[in-house]
Amino acid sequence: MLRLDVLTLFPEIFAPLFASIPARAQQAGLVAVHLHNLRQWGVGRHRQVDDTPYGGGPGMVLLAEPLFRATEAITALAPERPRVLLMSPQGPRLDQAAVFRLARESRLLLVCGHYEGLDERYREALVDEEVSIGDYVLSGGELAAMVLSDALIRVQPGAIDAESVRQDSFAEGLLDHPHYSRPATFRGMAVPPVLLSGNHAAIEKWRREQALVRTAERRPDLLSGS
Ligand code: 9D3
Asked: How do 129-131 and 83-87 pair as beta strands?
């Protein structure tokens, strides 16, 4: 059982974690997702969560006080201390190996920064690990937290067919082979005859070759190990 706590200023945009496979996984008790609004721990009458950066410059910085208080309060909601993951463009890029590693944890707290930065003292004191989902700029950590959560949820034992998890691209280090379904000929385009042969060894060999060719052509970095 995996418990995911998410700390964000925008809990209302997390609908994808309550649909499809993540919804079924929660109904089956394989995972629990708890959203928390950082505003709840804002300071003062205006529940302030950010302020201008010392030293000047554009943008705002999420205040240490609400981040510390929120993390302490969320931690206290369950017996186990969560591993605290900061969604951040400064982190190592997420890959399937990191997904499998993090999916074995029993409790994670995903902290979503905002376009602005976060007070560095929070990162130093309470963040265990930073996670980026790729080299492009998002407007906040929320979509990254949803991507990570979805990837973690679908590999929880029982969430989807175990063979599918094993065969996934990136788990095997290869892209997927082509897929076909009925009819055998569609608008003059025939399905590769080997797939209709009933020869399972030949089909397996063809699929592996196709996966290799595709990977070499489209993602040579996956083969060279870079
Ligand atoms: C001016 C420098 N920018 C850093 C590249 C500032 C900045 C831009 C966007 C700081 C935070 C953000 C919001 N993005 C995330 O919080 C984020 C993110 C991303 O933008 N890309 C990939 N993964 C992630 S995880 C969190």
From this structure: parallel
Of 1.10.1270.20, 3.30.1490.110, 1.10.10.10, 2.140.10.10, the CATH number of 173-224 is 1.10.1270.20
Cβ atoms < 10 Å from Cβ of 130: 17
Our mutation pick for probing the ligand 1 site, out of 137, 139, 146, 147, counting the most ligand atoms within 8 A of Cβ, is 137
Provide CATH code, domain 2-154: 3.40.1280.10
Annotated active-site residue in 116, 130, 150, 172: 116
Q: Is 116 a catalytic site residue?
A: yes
pTM of structure: 0.96
- Summarised one tens digit per residue, pLDDT across range 139-169 is 999 999 999 999 999 999 999 999 888 888 6
State the closest ligand 1 atom to the C-alpha of 138, by its place in the atom list counted from 1. 20
